[in-house]
Amino acid sequence: MRLGALEAGGTKMVCAIGNEQGEIFERISIPTETPDKTIPAMVEYFRDKEIEALGIGCFGPIDLNRSSETYGYITTTPKLAWTNCNIVGIFKDALGVPVGFDTDVNGSALGEATWGITKGLENSMYITIGTGVGAGIITNGKLLHGMLHPEAGHILLSKHPDDNYKGHCPYHSNCLEGLAAGPSIEERWGKKAIELADRREVRELEAYYIGQALVDFIMILSPQRIVLGGGVTHREHMLPLIREEVKKQLNGYLKTKELEDLDSYIVLPSLNDNQGIMGALKLALDEKNLA
What does the alpha-carbon distance between residue 30 and residue 32 come to, in Å, rounded to a whole number? Predict the structure, then answer.
């Protein structure tokens, strides 16, 4: 089965062709400009590839309610040119194939759950911490939606007693994204994050906030494994510090076999940065099976 995959990001659109086994045959990257410029280029790429379905993992917010008049739309995105863009409808009309649709980070969660490090688990979580923060949640074997979709980057946190930083998020002074994403690191410390790699106090403050957020997610969602993606968590020494902080802040309250082995519980992605595209292939496959 030939399937199309689109990982729609704020700076680039990754278009790929693969199959139902998650194998990727080819891919291209197209800069994210305005819909009038970017979408025709993507349609042209997919048009002659003889795909049977397309899966889209997309930046948001997006409308995932199939009974809504704006299902398949990018909605109130800060990328203003894409506001109220009917991205699913455009591809359906242009290609004449079923189109699966979800958030970009849900796509990554689905990729790992189908072929990666959370395969076989009914409940898992994929969190990306980079320029922004997002989370894909799988509960009882299904991607978690709701009235919209999880916006876990904006959970509110308690500030570290020694942190006087105002927060980078324009909506919340103390949310996870505003306190721990890449732009907040740069603004708080006055240097690019890569220049701060050897500063232990920087790493420890990051671990404090990320660890606190993970404890909140553990208490509410009870995932069987948490995957941490994004540039912030991939820095050397970050993962051990985050695990230490989770253990400290849980303070012995929960006793499970998973939490006894945090090295296997809080992990990095396993699919060589292909989890988003592979998740989009699974979205395409699932939509084809629904059709």
Answer: 6
